[in-house]
Amino acid sequence: MARKAVILAGGQCKWGVREAHLVDLFQEAAKACLDDIPTLKPKDIDGLIVATSYAGRCSFQVNTAPVIAERCGLKPTSICTRCDTLCAGGSTGIILAKGLVEAGAADIVMVAGGEKLYTPQKWEVFYSELASVDHVWEGAQGLGLPPPFFALTAQEHMMHYGTKKEHLAAVSVANYNYAADNPVAQMQKRLTLEEAMNAPVVVPPLTLYDCCPITDGAAACIITTDEIARKFTDRPLVYIRGTAQVCLNSVSANFPGEHLADWKHTRIAAQIAYERAKVTPNDIKVAQTHDCFSISEVIEVEELGFCKKGEGGEFCYSKQIEIGGKVPINTDGGLLAVGHPFGATGIRQAIEIMKQLQGRARHQVKDADIGLTHNLSGANAEHTILIYGREPVK
Amino acid sequence: MAVLGIPILDGLYPVTMDMWPVQAKEFNRIWPFYENLKQGRFTTTKCKDCGHVAYPPRVICPACYSENLEWIDLPTKGKVIVFSEEVKGVPLGFESPLIHAVIDLGVEPVRRLLSRIVNCPAGALKRGDEVQLSVFKVPDMPMEKGKAGTVMVERVFFAFEPVKK
Ligand SMILES: [Zn+2]
User: Fold this and answer.
1) Sequence-ordered list of residues with C-beta below 8 angstroms from that of A198, at least 6 positions apart, any chain
2) Is A316 a catalytic residue?
3) Is there a single domain that holds both residue A301 and residue A358?
4) Domain count, chain B
């Protein structure tokens, strides 16, 4: 019988401004992950994939995987490596782990992602953002920090589709309120539409709650096969049904859409992932999409096929992303409120989908059987989608 | 010049902290882009085998993988499609207002080039405004060069600026 990848367990440490070293955060996340599956011991884990992008710049540490393996008491025998796709690093790690366990090249892989972004002097992380984009062509244009780029994106969405500031604010309100009772979230407070509408300006039309914070944090999950998972748990199995990662540009001059609010690469990624998972957008009961900015979620619900192109603002404003809506999204609080330690985010999303599909999420979506995670990374350079289900692809 | 907390770096140049591109031909095969820029020309590479024009410039043709490329001029004037203005919280290395615009230079592949807009006060730019190439000096790069010791390599970079009416 073919080996089928599942996500067996996962956990994250407290995210926010952390008084800790990068390697401390990874240890906390590994513990949170194994606390979620007490039957699994470090010695059972034969592979480690680490997702971190800023280790080199903010912690002066490259080749992070062996360091993290050693500190976490892991002794990998099948794979011990790092992947760096910035905001999609965690999801990339899961895709790679799926391939390895299904191919029989590994059995039980920990995928761990994390960043320590707050440096002893704060300027350094902001300055290092010049490395997150195409350094020569966009960093030197002052495009390192993402708010200007997403402000342009929001303006073009408003120009072409009549999207309003209230639509953006509705995303922030929904995601903050999902995180209000999430003990590991960076932001744990309820937010009203009025507060979101009257927040300080960042880059017009974006204001404070439209932008995700800078976050220290880590998360880890276990990817294995269904047959192996059965030895460790009685919980419902959560299969990774289909994945896609699409990269069509690095420089915004070569942006693949008609304009910055037309995300062709997201549509292609979604189409491929849906085909591989043998599902359609209507089958998705819950999703974790990349809400690095409120406008991102507005565009993502369109490009993922949850509503028509141009209607994302109204979709979010009419509470379709909330519990009881068409597709509850970012049900743990998303990047906007849980925070965004780049390499950890895709793992955080996977953990929330796993819990939703196992019926143990904090904001549970009734009868959730198919879920989706989505990341965009870089200056909208790459889109990564994973689709999870209670049943494997037949 | 002292580096706080890291005395051993006094007087040294860390390229990993340099916000501007390394432009010396010893470190960069597209150095003619910067030489052309110094003459007010905005250039890129065109494939002599298949005709493909790529931006940014590169050392192989991304369409046919030929190395038989030539430098061609791109327009230096265009129109603002959309722009953003950051007044507060501008990152280190840039001045307020930090303005970015998607500009149309009228030909592929630069119908939607994202660039910084300089020499423009906050609140002055409008969609549809005409902008032109602006080339400016950036700090020289200290480079070790054998027996010559450390030589200073002159550098420039570019943005666009409003065309004076
Ligand atoms: Zn060619």
Assistant:
1) none
2) no
3) yes
4) 1
CATH code, A222: 3.40.47.10
Q: What is the average pLDDT value for chain A, to the nearest integer?
A: 97
Distance B54 CA to ligand 1 centre (A): 9
Residues A34 and A68 in one domain: yes
Same-domain check for residues A191 and A264: yes
pLDDT of res. B1: 60
Say whether A253 and B100 touch across the interface (CB within 8 A).
no
Q: Mark whether A272 and A299 lie in a shared domain.
A: yes
B84 inside domain: yes
Q: Indicate whether A104 belongs to any domain.
A: yes
Task: Specify the pTM.
Answer: 0.97
Measured between alpha carbons, how far apart are the two ends of chain B, in Å?
A: 43
Instruction: Please give the helix or strand (H or E) that residue A113 lies within, else none.
Output: strand A109-115
Question: CA A183 → CA A21, A81, B121, distances in Å?
Answer: 21, 30, 45
What's the average model confidence in pLDDT over A218-228?
A: 98
Alpha-carbon torsion (A348, A351, A353, A359), positive or negative? negative
This complex has an ipTM of 0.96
Q: Is there a domain that residue A225 lies in? A: yes
Q: What's the Rg (C-alpha) of chain A? A: 19
Residues of B in contact with A159 (CB under 8 A): 82
Whole domain around residue A62: which residue ranges?
A: 5-121+215-229
DSSP secondary structure string for all residues of A296-312? HHHHHHHHTTSS-TT-H
Return phi, psi of residue A188, to 5°: -125, 70
pLDDT (average), residues B17-21: 96
